[in-house]
Each structure stands twice: as structure tokens, then as C-alpha cells.
């Protein structure tokens, strides 16, 4: 059988927030490339539904209930994944939440902490747990964090979201340097506007404000369309694969040209 450098046959991947949106597409792309995949998310019913859908790829898909902002739950989820599938070769820290919008001078600290807890602490806890297992295994691996184009631009009215996503870029660079000697790479993907539930009110909202926002955003996307979750799946498969063997500590922007316009 001819193997491409993108072939991931026999590898094990973890995808947090793998039961919906971008995470489900990433999990599907990794399974299609040959990975056994653990899908972590808080809602185990949704994890199971997604695992059933992904069974078509003929790989093992393990649903794991986990809130990534909770250290103990992350450690347990990783142990369960290792027991059932083996040590991860690929770990995608994708789970994330939008932030409630408030003017920054009034931004509530509890919402700041909630968003940081999922989008930054959750990313750190997940990648830390995976890196430990990769170091123990001695076979290297690929860590991928799903950041956001907002990391480059800021997000007026949602400061913790953009701050967490920017911090993730720095986290990935630290991990890349620290773990390079173990053959572990770390990179971030920065999606632009991707059509998922997270931005459903902008993409599908019917009121006049949503329509005006939609038109304004679309005018700023040179590709003239919303991103699809699958657009991110391909980028992650590349970073997970041997095609990216020399690619580490970097950011891959997948936004239809939004941030260069
Ligand atoms: P969705 O809202 O569609 O999905 C979010 C996923 O994250 C769900 O699977 C959810 O599962 C999971 N999740 C949320 N909180 C937690 C938690 N505490 N622990 C574990 N899992 C959690 O979002 P998207 O698919 O759009 O977003 C995925 C990632 O991409 C996020 O990090 C987001 O910030 C980023 N992104 C998205 C963009 C977009 O335009 N859509 C643009 C740029 C970045 P459950 O509720 O079961 O826990």
C-alpha cells in the first residue's frame, strides 16, 4: 500500500471538544487519515452520538466525558484514553467557549475566569497531560492548540476570549522549545470565521443587527465565504502528520484571508 506523508494509520489522537463543530470535523479528518480517536467533551451523550457517526471510518472512536477546565477530570480522561486506545501520538486542544459580551471597563471578573478556565487553562491542562504520556512513550508526538484569528486582532467586548487565544500562542511556543528534544512538536491553528454553533447568531441570525454584522464580516473575508469545520480538519491532519516533521512552534492561520485584508 502506498503511504502518503499525511498517513496516520495506527496512531492515537485526542480531540477535546470533539463532539461538535470544529472538533467533530477534526476528529473525523484524523479518523479518516487512520487514527483511533478519543473525543472529550462535557456532554457524554453528544460524545457518544459523534463517536457513532465517526464509526464509518473503521477506526476506534472513544467518547470520554471531561470538563477540560478541571485538572482531575483531564488526568482521568487521559488515563482512560491510554487504557483504552494507548498513548496519544496527537493531541488537539480544541475545546473552547465564546465569552459574554460586555464593555471592557465593566467586564465581570467571574466571566473572565470562566473563559480563561476553559480556553487557556483547559488547553494547558490537556497539552500537559498529553505531553507527559508522549515523553514516557518516547515516540514523539504532535500537540495542536486551536487558537483563533482573534488572537492577532483582539476582540472588543470579549477581552478574555482574545486574551486566552493569544496566550495559547505563547504556550505553544514554550512547549515546542521544551519538548523538541523528545520529538514532540507543538503548533497552533488560528481559525477565522467558521460556521459552527459558536458563531451561529452571526451566520444564521435573522434580525437586522445580525444581518448587518454578517454582511460587514463577509465583506472582510477575501474568500467571500464562511469557513467550514472541515477547513480546519485538513490543517490539523497536516500538523499531526510526518509531512509536518520539521514544523514546530508555529501558527497556522486558516481564515480565508480575513486577517491579511
Ligand atoms: P462549538 O461551540 O461548536 O463547540 C465547542 C466544543 O467545545 C463542544 O464540543 C463542547 O462540548 C466543547 N467544550 C466547551 N467547553 C468545554 C469544557 N469545559 N470541557 C470540555 N469540552 C468543552 O465551537 P467551535 O467548534 O466553533 O469551536 C472550537 C474551537 O475553535 C474553540 O476553541 C473556539 O474558540 C475555536 N474557534 C472557533 C471559531 C469559529 O468561528 N467557530 C473561530 C476561531 C476559533 P461540551 O459542551 O459537550 O463540553
From TrEMBL:
<dbReference type="InterPro" id="IPR020904">
    <property type="entry name" value="Sc_DH/Rdtase_CS"/>
</dbReference>
<feature type="domain" description="Ketoreductase">
    <location>
        <begin position="11"/>
        <end position="196"/>
    </location>
</feature>
<keyword id="KW-0560">Oxidoreductase</keyword>
<dbReference type="InterPro" id="IPR057326">
    <property type="entry name" value="KR_dom"/>
</dbReference>
<dbReference type="InterPro" id="IPR036291">
    <property type="entry name" value="NAD(P)-bd_dom_sf"/>
</dbReference>
<dbReference type="InterPro" id="IPR002347">
    <property type="entry name" value="SDR_fam"/>
</dbReference>
<dbReference type="Pfam" id="PF13561">
    <property type="entry name" value="adh_short_C2"/>
</dbReference>
<protein>
    <recommendedName>
        <fullName>Ketoreductase domain-containing protein</fullName>
    </recommendedName>
</protein>
<dbReference type="GO" id="GO:0016616">
    <property type="term" value="F:oxidoreductase activity, acting on the CH-OH group of donors, NAD or NADP as acceptor"/>
</dbReference>
<comment type="similarity">
    <text>Belongs to the short-chain dehydrogenases/reductases (SDR) family.</text>
</comment>
Amino acid at each position: 500500500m502506498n503511504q502518503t506523508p499525511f498517513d496516520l494509520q495506527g496512531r492515537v489522537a485526542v480531540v477535546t471538544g470533539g463532539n461538535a463543530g470544529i472538533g467533530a470535523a477534526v476528529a473525523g479528518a484524523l479518523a479518516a487519515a487512520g487514527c483511533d480517536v478519543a473525543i472529550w467533551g462535557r456532554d457524554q451523550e453528544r460524545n457518544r452520538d459523534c463517536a457513532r457517526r465517526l464509526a464509518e471510518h473503521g477506526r476506534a472512536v472513544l467518547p470520554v466525558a471531561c470538563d477540560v477546565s478541571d485538572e482531575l477530570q483531564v488526568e482521568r480522561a487521559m488515563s482512560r484514553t491510554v487504557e483504552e486506545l494507548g498513548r496519544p501520538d496527537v493531541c488537539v486542544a480544541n475545546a473552547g467557549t465564546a465569552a459574554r459580551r460586555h464593555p471592557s471597563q465593566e467586564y465581570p471578573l467571574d466571566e473572565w475566569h470562566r473563559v480563561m478556565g476553559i480556553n487557556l487553562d483547559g488547553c494547558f491542562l490537556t497539552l500537559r497531560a498529553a505531553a507527559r504520556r508522549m515523553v514516557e512513550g518516547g515516540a514523539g508526538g504532535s500537540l495542536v492548540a486551536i487558537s483563533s484569528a482573534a488572537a492577532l486582532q483582539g476582540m472588543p467586548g470579549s477581552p478574555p476570549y482574545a486574551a486566552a487565544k493569544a496566550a495559547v500562542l505563547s504556550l505553544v511556543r514554550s512547549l515546542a522549545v521544551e519538548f523538541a528534544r523528545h520529538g514532540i512538536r507543538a503548533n497552533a491553528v488560528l481559525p477565522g470565521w467558521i460556521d459552527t454553533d459558536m458563531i451561529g447568531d452571526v451566520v444564521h441570525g435573522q434580525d437586522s443587527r445580525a444581518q448587518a454584522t454578517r454582511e460587514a464580516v463577509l465583506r472582510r473575508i477575501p474568500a467571500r465565504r464562511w469557513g467550514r469545520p472541515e477547513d480546519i480538519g485538513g490543517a490539523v491532519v497536516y500538523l499531526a502528520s510526518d509531512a509536518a516533521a520539521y514544523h514546530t512552534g508555529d501558527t497556522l492561520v486558516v481564515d480565508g484571508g480575513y486577517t491579511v485584508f
